[in-house]
Structures are given as structure tokens and as C-alpha cells.
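R.M. (postdoc): so does anyone remember the format we settled on? I'll just put the C-alpha cells first.
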């Protein structure tokens, strides 16, 4: 049996026919369920059953899922073509279940063509384009981004997808974004186990496309799920050692609270949308925003307000001196951005 670190995870091969092995670990309910399905017992901790089609495999897994519910993650299994295989990869039953029922999306993650949509970020003082946030999209638009990332999470392929997203974002600068304009690129800290090793591919891509590292801002997402602050700090330091900038997303939500700013010292922070919405009339939001800005100023951190959708929100943020702005009021994500996307009409509306 071969077990791989999740950072090196490769998608399961769902054969048209073959064998499903399950290792119940002396769990009575699972053992009884496998007996009902006429699995052959190899030993006390190994049951096996042949399947003649993917439909048959789905039926087995559906029944097991119905019987065991959310406990599938606790048990190991494998799919193989030989009844008595050599060394094989084992996965949780939950992972096998998700791969089987999301095979098409898994194939898109593995082999699909992707592009970056770019959403403009402007300098609040001048209204000029400061940078773009890179947002991963499937080229043929066959699946929504939210679905893509959800399946990647369920199938443990988020490391693969996250690495592809970084590569596409860096590549997309070529002939589209001039030097000096920043690219804000999302990354999932939970997929980076050893920064020096896991980010090596990203740094090679930067060199391959001759991108100035100073133009890249790597933006932490899913911050509410991070508990190891030292590990996150080591990731951010690894980016900085290679000449790149770092940002914290969704500041104010979940984990990314103000007390973390002094510990992590990011170059940029992006304020969570909940504090931007109606900021011109919400006293609570105003108190939070002013507190963030005062702390950020002390620490030398650039502040970006994201999710700006109205003239009133924009004008209030400009009045209190926020550094950068992003949102539908300024420009929607597009495959073909323009440096003049924040047009004359919007500049006049915003008082620029």
C-alpha cells in the first residue's frame, strides 16, 4: 500500500471495470454493510469486490455512503484492476466516493484549459490602475468557479488546482499587463506544507515568463481556517525572500483579525466586504475601518477596500483616505482588461 502526502496528491483513476478494496478496521457496521453487498473477505481488515462498470461502482459506494454517512472519511479503500494487486495507493472512502461522483470535474481540474479573468484595482488618489486581481476560470465556462473549487476541496485536489491558478495568473501577465502594474494572486495556505518545496514551481514560472517579482502580490485566502500562525508566517517570508509582496484577504472576518496584523506584517490587507457594504451609513463599519487604517498606517501596510459597488461607498472610502479600491463600481472581472477601465464617467461620479 502506498500513501502520498496530500501536497503531491494525484487524482484517482476511475476504471471502467476493476476491483474495489475496502479496509474496515474492525468496524462492525461497515463490515456488515460490505457483507450485504457480497464483498469477498480477504482477511479481517480487507474486503474486495469486482465491479463491471462505473455505474456498478457508484451503486456500491452510494449504498455504503447511505449506511455509513459522514464517517466514510475514517476508512481507507482503493480502486485497482488486478484482483491481487501489487503496491497500490489508498485513499479515504470519502475521497473515493467524491472522485467517482465528480469524475468529469476532476478531469477538468487535471486536464482542462484555464484562463485568468482580471479585476482592476485602482489608486484612490489618482484613479489610475494600480493592479489586477487574477481570478481563475475554466476556458470553456463549463463549470462555475465556486463549483470547481468545491469539488477540488472534496477530492483533495485543491493543491493541484491552486498551483495551476498561480501558474495561469503569472502567465497571463504576458502581453496583457505592463511592468509596474501589480498582479494580486490568490493562494491557499492549507495546500503549502513545505514552502521551499511547494512554492518552487511557482518561482520557476516567474523566471520562465520573465516577470518582475516585485509586481506580484500573493494573497492569502481561507484565512479563517488557519491555526498555525508560524507556518503561515514562514510561507509569507518565503514569498518575500524571492522579491514578492504578500497580502491578507478578508481582514475582519474569521481568523484574519486585527491582532494578527502585527504578527504577520503583510504588505497589503484587503478589507472584508461586510465592512465595505453601506460603509457610508453604518457607524459600526466606519469604526472598524478607521481602526484598521490607523493600525495599518503604524505598521506600514497598504489598505485595499474590495467589493465596492456604489458611488457612496467609494466616496466615503476616498474621504477617509483608504489607499486602494476594487469592486464592480470600478470594474468587473474580464479576460481583456483595459488600463482605462475606470472610465471618465466613473471618475466624474467618484469625484476624481
Amino acid at each position: 500500500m502506498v500513501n502520498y502526502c496530500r501536497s503531491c496528491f494525484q487524482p484517482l483513476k476511475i476504471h471502467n471495470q476493476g476491483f474495489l478494496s475496502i479496509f474496515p478496521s474492525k468496524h462492525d457496521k461497515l463490515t456488515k454493510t460490505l457483507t450485504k453487498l457480497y464483498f469477498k473477505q480477504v482477511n479481517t481488515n480487507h474486503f474486495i469486490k469486482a465491479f463491471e462498470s462505473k455505474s456498478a461502482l457508484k451503486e456500491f459506494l452510494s449504498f455504503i455512503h447511505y449506511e455509513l454517512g459522514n464517517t466514510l472519511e475514517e476508512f481507507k479503500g482503493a480502486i485497482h484492476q488486478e484482483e491481487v494487486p501489487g503496491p497500490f495507493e489508498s485513499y479515504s472512502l470519502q475521497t473515493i466516493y467524491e472522485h467517482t461522483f465528480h469524475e468529469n470535474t476532476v478531469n477538468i481540474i487535471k486536464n482542462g484549459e484555464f484562463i485568468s479573468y482580471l479585476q482592476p484595482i485602482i489608486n484612490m488618489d489618482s484613479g489610475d490602475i494600480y493592479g489586477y486581481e487574477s481570478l481563475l476560470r475554466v476556458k470553456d465556462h463549463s463549470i462555475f468557479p465556486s463549483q470547481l473549487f468545491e469539488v477540488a476541496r472534496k477530492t483533495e485536489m485543491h493543491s493541484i488546482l491552486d498551483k495551476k491558478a498561480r501558474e495561469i495568473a503569472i502567465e497571463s501577465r504576458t502581453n496583457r499587463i505592463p511592468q509596474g502594474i501589480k498582479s494580486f494572486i490568490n493562494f491557499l495556505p492549507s495546500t503549502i506544507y513545505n514552502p521551499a518545496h511547494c512554492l518552487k514551481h511557482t518561482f520557476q514560472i516567474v523566471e520562465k515568463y520573465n516577470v518582475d517579482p516585485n509586481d506580484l502580490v500573493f494573497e492569502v485566502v481561507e484565512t479563517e481556517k488557519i491555526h498555525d500562525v508560524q507556518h503561515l508566517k514562514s510561507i509569507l517570508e518565503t514569498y518575500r525572500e524571492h522579491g514578492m509582496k504578500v497580502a491578507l484577504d478578508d481582514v475582519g472576518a474569521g481568523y484574519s483579525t486585527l491582532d494578527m496584523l502585527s504578527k504577520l506584517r503583510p504588505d497589503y490587507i484587503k478589507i472584508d466586504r461586510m465592512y465595505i457594504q453601506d460603509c457610508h451609513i453604518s457607524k459600526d463599519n466606519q469604526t472598524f475601518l478607521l481602526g484598521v487604517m490607523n493600525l495599518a498606517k503604524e505598521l506600514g501596510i497598504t489598505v485595499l477596500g474590495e467589493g465596492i459597488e456604489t458611488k457612496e461607498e467609494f466616496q466615503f472610502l476616498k474621504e477617509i483616505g483608504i489607499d486602494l479600491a476594487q469592486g464592480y463600481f470600478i470594474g468587473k472581472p474580464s479576460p481583456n482588461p483595459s488600463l482605462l477601465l475606470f472610465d471618465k464617467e466613473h471618475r466624474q461620479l467618484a469625484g476624481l
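R.M.: ...and that's the designed sequence above, right after the C-alpha cells. Also worth knowing: The CA atoms of residues 342 and 348 lie 10 Å apart. The domain at 106-350 is CATH 3.20.20.450 (TIM Barrel).
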